[in-house]
Design a protein that fits this description.
There is one protein chain. This protein is α+β, with helices and mostly antiparallel strands. It contains 17 helices and 26 strands. The strands form seven sheets. Strands 3-10-11-19-16-15-14-12-13 form a nine-stranded mixed beta sheet. A five-stranded mixed beta sheet has the order 23-22-24-25-26, sandwiched between helices. The chain binds glycyl-adenosine-5'-phosphate. Glycyl-adenosine-5'-phosphate binds next to strand 11, strand 16, strand 19 and helix 13.
Length: 495
């Protein structure tokens, strides 16, 4: 029987969500292309993300920036020296493996951040052999995950493809601070492509070499933000938390935001945990039992972070809770690094004080989030696939069908579809039985289908069908735009 991962991958490729890039030439490990449905879904996710997170404060803005960064900037950020994974090579077949993944595959525990000597000792203790040929593994060695590029006709300028979008925000901080209103907090969001030379790309959209991030960097004054944050509004919110020593058990417990603050987390950090959770549970409709924040221990967290909780969604296709994002307190690591590296002062003046802002980063993997929504959405009804995507994320939010292809119904249906297309991506379909047409739209996640029949010609009403309940309701054609808007934003239901 195909696994859930295979089912999802098959749907993705067959219908046009995501597939291996360059497959005409046998593929290109770690690189993927989005088809027509995937690209539309991605765009919808990005729109909803921007609306949510730029909506947190009037001083949060979207910027865009270069993908290639010179070595000096990435040296100052710490990536040249510290952005490494441990690699082991088989002494027999020469295959390379990521050391922590080999250990994780055998024990089920996380080994990220373990040093080379400890990793080698663990490999010996567990008698780990090459998974490909069972040969002996050589010593582990650090491997920098950035893709180097040589810029200029002689390749004289060393540079790298950016490993995270965050650097664009740090490099533009000073200019934006001056162009905006010289106020903190100031948020700079970037959505864009990143590149990491993953040693073993795997699990489709989970570990890619080129992937998309949506990141918001919030620059703040550490002396004042804790009191300024509107914490009371979320103090009683239950937040799904697995602390570092609990997360291995695979669950979480709900602690109120106030309990977390009493336990030592800053109010501004906890406030943003609540906002990120809200995005997943409400906006993306992730079932509550499938969402948690998982704390990273000092050993596990990225070199730039002081507080680090991963955002995780439990996905059957990937075998459990999997990281889709992170809430990172990066302190003044980045601006401090760039200030030292560039010799430009990055301190700003706030209420007569010189402040080097600290950074709270809300970081999201777009591809991983999309995969998670496909995983959570895919179900079966009466032997047929139904993809329950949130209406605002669905690539085709509505489809219009004439019941039969005669008596003027196709013309009327086309007119209605064209009218709705002013607001949404709407498909017109008159091929096959109405049941087949419903099934085709259910399979690609379309939440609402509209049927035009002979009654439409008499009384001007149309039928709206809900993908999830299959309920149908007649509504006047003249109110269809309003009805669909309310259905899409969740303020009404069919039926
Ligand atoms: N700026 C912070 C940062 O880059 P990260 O945890 O390394 O932090 C952020 O990456 C998010 O980017 C992850 O939570 C994940 O969703 C996504 N991501 C990271 N590496 C990825 C990869 N190889 N393939 C797909 N998504 C990835």
């Amino acid at each position: 029987m195909p696994s859930r991962y295979e089912d999802l991958w098959s749907l993705s490729v067959r219908k046009g969500f995501l597939w291996p890039a360059v497959d005409l030439y046998g593929g290109f490990a770690g690189f993927y292309d989005y088809g027509h449905l995937g690209a539309a879904m991605k765009r919808n996710w990005e729109d909803v993300w921007l609306e949510t997170f730029l909506g947190l404060d009037e001083n949060y803005h979207l910027i865009d920036g270069t993908i290639a960064l010179p070595e000096a900037a990435l040296k100052a950020s710490g990536h040249v020296d510290h952005f490494t994974d441990l690699l082991v090579r088989c002494t027999k077949c020469r295959e390379t493996h990521r050391a922590d993944h080999l250990l994780e595959d055998i024990t089920g525990e996380a080994y990220e951040g373990l040093g080379a000597a400890e990793t080698d000792a663990k490999i010996r203790e567990l008698k780990v052999r090459c998974p490909k040929c069972k040969g002996e593994l050589g010593p582990s060695q650090p491997f920098n995950m950035m893709f180097p590029i040589a810029v200029g006709p002689l390749g004289q300028d060393r540079a790298y493809l950016r490993p995270e979008t965050a650097q664009v925000a740090y490099l533009n901080f000073k200019r934006e601070f001056e162009a905006l209103r010289r106020k903190l907090p100031m948020g700079l969001a970037v959505i864009g492509r990143c590149f990491r030379n993953e040693i073993s790309p795997r699990q489709g959209a989970y570990r890619m070499r080129e992937f998309l991030q949506a990141e918001l960097q919030i620059f703040f004054d550490p002396a004042t933000w804790d009191q300024a944050i509107p914490f009371d509004a979320i103090a009683a919110a239950p937040i799904h938390i697995a602390f570092a020593d609990e997360k291995g058990k695979g669950g979480f417990s709900a602690r109120t935001a106030k309990e977390l603050v009493d336990g030592g987390l800053p109010r501004w950090y906890t406030y943003h945990l609540a906002k990120v959770q809200d995005f997943f549970l409400r906006t993306l409709a992730v079932p509550p039992e499938r969402f948690r924040f998982a704390e990273l221990s000092e050993r596990e967290r990225a070199f730039y972070n002081k507080i680090h909780f991963d955002v995780e969604v439990r996905q059957d296709s990937l075998g459990g809770f999997k990281e889709v994002g992170g809430v990172h307190y990066r302190s003044d690591h980045d601006l401090g690094g760039h200030q030292a590296g560039s010799r430009e002062r990055l301190e700003v003046s706030v209420d007569g004080r010189k402040v080097l802002p600290h950074v709270l980063e809300l970081s999201f993997g777009v591809d991983r989030s999309l995969w998670a929504l496909l995983d959570l959405g895919l179900g079966v009804r009466d032997g047929k696939s139904v993809l329950r995507l949130p209406p605002r994320i669905a690539p085709i939010p509505a489809a219009v069908f004439p019941l039969v292809s005669k008596d003027g119904l196709p013309e009327r249906a086309r007119e209605i579809a064209a009218n709705l297309r002013r607001r949404w991506r709407v498909l017109y379909d008159e091929g096959g039985s109405i049941g087949k047409r419903y099934a085709r739209m259910d399979e690609v996640g379309t939440p609402y289908t509209i049927t035009i029949d002979h009654d439409t010609m008499k009384d001007g009403t149309v039928t709206v069908r809900d993908r999830d309940t299959t309920e149908q309701k007649r509504v006047p054609e003249t109110s269809l735009l309003d009805v669909l808007s309310e259905l899409m934003d969740g303020s009404r239901t069919v039926g």
